[in-house]
Amino acid sequence: xxxxxxxxxxxxxAAALEAAGARAILAPAIEITAPDDPAPAREAASNLSxxxxxxxxxxxxxxxxxxxxxxxxTAARAIGTxxxxxxxxxxxxxxxxxxxxxxxxxxxxxxxxxxxALIAASAPGERLLIxxxxxxxxxxxxxxxAAGRCPVVVAAYKTVFTRDDRFAEKVAASDxxxxxSASTVRGFVRNxxxxxxxxxxxxxxxxACIGPITAHEARTTGLHVHAIASEYTxxxxxxxxxxxx
Length: 245
What we know:
12 helices
């Protein structure tokens, strides 16, 4: 099974695959780096008392947030009375590893449902700080703004495509391709030289995606998606892979 998620996140997933009897072929299609301008994130983190909610849309955003502080205790004091929202259980678990509990997790782990949950839990005029990827979709801030909330978006990190000279070789050796974000799909396509080459490389392979946004990106590229996790987490993707097998 081809594992395209970033290198710093693939160990646990790869170990679970191998425990289930599969061979994980590690081919990170993206990596996480600092945003082009880290100053807004640092400034926002030093003024958290201005916000009613602190919103995390990925575990990477949580890690980037805590990197701004000397230790978890300093971060917790900076958060103060702000309530914490996490897009899903993976993000919430990363928060818990730093001693912070999320007050809000939507029932399904996409930006649209996170927006609906935050609108229900907040009041008009409240300010919400969103720590997210530099290139993330704007749907969360858009929906909050339309409901009379005051979202403030800062780029906590940036997703960049990797370059792996053995990427095509790794794809050829795989029976199943796994994608854990729309960015991993785009990185897959980039490493193979474009959509047409990616479709050819994926012929006769099964494709599993972590959720509908990732699956939509794959289908837009021309890839045929065979399985979508019903729970949009690495654990849910493993369950979907078991059904494929």
